[in-house]
UniProtKB/TrEMBL annotation:
Keyword rRNA-binding: no
Protein name per UniProt: Pantothenate synthetase
Binding site for ATP: 30-37, 147-150, 176, 184-187
Organism annotation: Brevirhabdus pacifica
NCBIfam families reported for this sequence: cyt_tran_rel, panC
Length: 281
């Protein structure tokens, strides 16, 4: 695996693939990799001749400086995992290379970024689209692979690609879970043992909702059901529940009559976790 720290080197490696007529899949990451990321790499390998990855803890998508500082990092471990998974090249850029001095350009999906989780984390999705647009321009991939766990992020990126005519296909990979159902996330490493055990309540609430939706409840009835499950767990706080149409993320006014995305976020200790599931009545 080629490890590049300079954007120019990474571009040169990719230009070599292109010259050989090979297609390229991109897996953008913020590092501290786990099996969920490896599922993205596996999918990327199915979709293109070459797989390239990026490891960049993107400062513009963190609201609080403390959250950014505490974000776990493990560069040596990450490189080993990517290499073993068959990634061809990885870029680990510096913040000043991605955001050059005097930088003044942002990319924002105005509607999708400022609803749901975007209201709880103002500026977060703007940071995501701004960095992903830059990474697309650097790597010029044919396809880029993202996890469904960050469901709103996935829809925001799809909207950006459509609106800005990026010649990139977006592939989505289902959430990878621990044996007890907890969605894999780099943030899980920051949970203390009690919070780690408690955090499974999110996936349990989603499983209950998946069954309950068969009775075609209204979105607010389903939300009450989820709140009752999560509310019974005293270690969960700041619960946010959004039940929206799966494709448009539009609100569901009456009974759930088609695919609905349930997006949850809750704090365990000081760690904000998210989980989601698309359910169909
Ligand atoms: O999902 C992530 O890890 C990040 O939001 C992404 C897409 C790599 C952008 O920084």
């Amino acid at each position: 695996m080629k490890t590049c720290r300079e954007i120019a080197d990474f571009r040169e490696v990719i230009a070599g693939y292109r010259a050989a007529g090979e297609s390229v899949a991109l897996v953008p990451t913020m590092g501290y990799l786990h099996a969920g990321h490896m599922a993205l790499v596996t999918r990327a390998r199915e979709l293109a001749d070459r797989v390239v990855a990026t490891i960049f803890v993107n400062p513009t998508q963190f609201g609080q400086a403390a959250d950014l500082e505490q974000y776990p990092r493990n560069e040596a471990g990450d490189l080993q995992m990517l290499d073993q998974a068959g990634v061809d090249a990885v870029l680990l850029p510096s913040v000043k290379d991605i955001y050059p001095e005097g930088d003044q350009t942002i990319v924002e999906t105005t509607r999708l970024a400022n609803m749901l989780h975007g209201l709880v984390r103002p500026g977060h999705f703007r940071g995501v689209t701004t960095v992903v647009a830059r990474l697309f321009n650097i790597a010029t991939p044919d396809v880029a692979v993202f996890g469904e766990k960050d469901y709103q992020q996935l829809q925001v990126i799809r909207a950006m690609v459509r609106d800005l005519h990026f010649p990139v296909a977006i592939a989505a990979v289902p959430t990878v879970r621990e044996a007890d159902g907890l969605a894999m996330s780099s943030r899980n490493a920051r949970l203390d043992p009690e919070d780690r055990a408690a955090a499974t309540v999110l996936s349990r609430a989603l499983s209950e909702a998946e069954v309950a939706v068969r009775d075609r409840p209204t979105a607010s009835q389903l939300e009450d059901r989820i709140r009752a499950v999560v509310g019974a767990c005293p270690r969960a706080s700041d619960l946010a529940v959004d039940i929206v149409r799966a494709e448009s993320l539009a609100p569901i006014e009456a009974r759930i009559d088609g695919p609905a995305a349930i997006m949850l976020s809750a704090r365990f200790g000081d760690v904000l976790l998210i989980d989601q599931r698309v359910v169909t009545p």
